[in-house]
Amino acid sequence: IIGMFFQDGLTGSAWGDWSNYTASPLRAFENELGVQAPVGFWDPVGLAADGNLDNFKRRREIEIKHGRISMLATMGYITPELTGKWPGYLSPSFGIKFADIPNGLAAVSKIPVVGWAQIVIYAGCCEASGWNDRGTEPGDFLWKPPLLATDDAELKKKRLSAELANGRLAMMAIIGMFFQDGLTGSAWGDWANYTDSPLRAFEGELGVQAPVGFFDPVGFTKDGNEAAFKRRREVEIKHGRVSMLATMGYITPEITGKFPGFLSPLNNLKFEDVPNGLAALKVVPSGGWAQILAYCFLCELEGFDPKDREPGNLGFRPPFLYTEDPALRSRRLAAELANGRLAMMAIIGMFFQDGLTGSAWGDWANYTDSPLRAFENELGVQAPVGFFDPLNLSSDGNVEEFKRRREVEIKHGRISMLATMGYITPEITGKFPGYLSPSNDLAFNDIPNGLAAVSKIPQAGLLQIVAYAAYCEISGINNRGEAPGDFGWKVLTSADPEERKKKLAAEIANGRLAMMAIIGMFFQDGLTGSAWGDWANYTQSPLRAFENELGVQPPVGFWDPLGLADDGNTEVFLRRRETELKHGRISMLATMG
User: Fold this and answer.
1) pLDDT digit string, tens, across residues 429-462
2) 142 in Cβ contact with 134 (< 8 Å)
3) How far is CA 249 from each of CA 245, 258, 292, 388, rounded to the nearest angstrom?
4) Residue 344: helix, strand or coil by DSSP?
5) Residue 208, beta-bridge partner list
6) Which residues contact 420 (CB under 8 A, 6 or more apart)?
7) Taking Cα atoms as reference points, which of 266, 500, 273, 501 lies closest to residue 380?
8) Listed residue (223, 232, 181) closest to 200, CA to CA
9) pLDDT per residue over 336-351, tens digit each?
10) pTM metric for this prediction
């Protein structure tokens, strides 16, 4: 019945062939001009869904006007390229010839003010003349263009449809021309010819290399500002040179060794005492830092030149590299840029690896002193996962924090192993004979297994459990060894270090498994009333309270995706069933009606 209401509201009938519903508001304009295969009547936004004829005609009028203007504009772009421009003067008073007006958007800045006034007046005249002298159809201004106007109704409809289609095409075309003209300086042609486009202002500069070509994904240079480009190129060259020196400064001491003698006799500091990489920062004395800063300042002053010069050209002619040959010079400067870019990436990678591992390169297996590897040999590191710390809780290498977390993990694991066995054992071996609480006449057999037992234990029993847990906590405060979880109790230990390590690792692994197991048992027990077994046996679970009620049919079975009945409340279920039956009976009557 819902489907019938919907189709009836849309089409005026609840069923039947869509092609018969010509009176539906959705089909009000399907026979208008402009409905063409293969799209048909295309109104994805639903502007015409209300069937309002006045609104449709207004929009059609706007569409025709925009289409006609776009066709004229498109031809205005194309014609001067094919036929050339008028001879003589556009404006004798301003000395502007037709040939002086560029094609496309660039013409906007060349037209004199009087020309703009004429354009605006002509547009206003066209608008005003169309207010009264018009027919009844949108776009009909009673003008009969020769070779196009006809009295044949079918041919007239065909030509008017062609006008609409061409206008739509022209609206897309002129927008594309504007866009390409704005970007390249011309509305068409081979991109390689548009050397004057701001987008190509720097494509012939150094550093443009295959296969990437001119790479500016953020568009810093798209404004064609030469001063800004030169400033950025100067910065790039400087960073590249510094990075090349820094990269070599990392590599060279590893290959050639360090200088003999003292770096600072005053501080009794030898060159070999200074470690390679980031670790050197804390060893360099303050006098050394002062020398480094003074040298950097000198380099900056030497390169400061307010005169216009080539980026990076500080007048230094390095032997074996400088040349007067323009082609070779361009090649070597391009190589400097490329190597500088590579060095910037390299030094950042070295800093990153050095900060993480203590060295800028080498086999990861050798970096045993890295904070990232501080706990890789601890218990619990097992194949195939290895050291598993996805949240990087131990990435700071803090031993105290690691031991505290390991202590917590072992405790939780031991409790979970006891709890898991506490679930399983009574199911296999049965329960103790006799009474759990004679004063409450409560036998062991009266206590159900699992979460249901919580409600059966008397208050005194809960107090005993809490007191025992407190005793275990207090007794472990002082009686303990060095390792986490070591309380001096020897139950499965071994004098053989390897065997002992194997057993302790097994305890951690079993504890982890038990933590997952007990959570799963709690979850299943809470849902079904038992921690394991065949779902078909749990007929007492609240989730199954209504599975035998009317309406439970294959293949879906009892279907309650929102869980409305999972509380097992019979009164609420009966109320909803009453509502469902009433709605169903009314809908059956309505459908038959």
Assistant:
1) 988 999 988 988 999 998 888 888 888 888 888 9
2) yes
3) 6, 11, 14, 35
4) helix
5) none
6) 514, 517, 518, 521
7) 501
8) 223
9) 999 999 999 999 999 9
10) 0.43
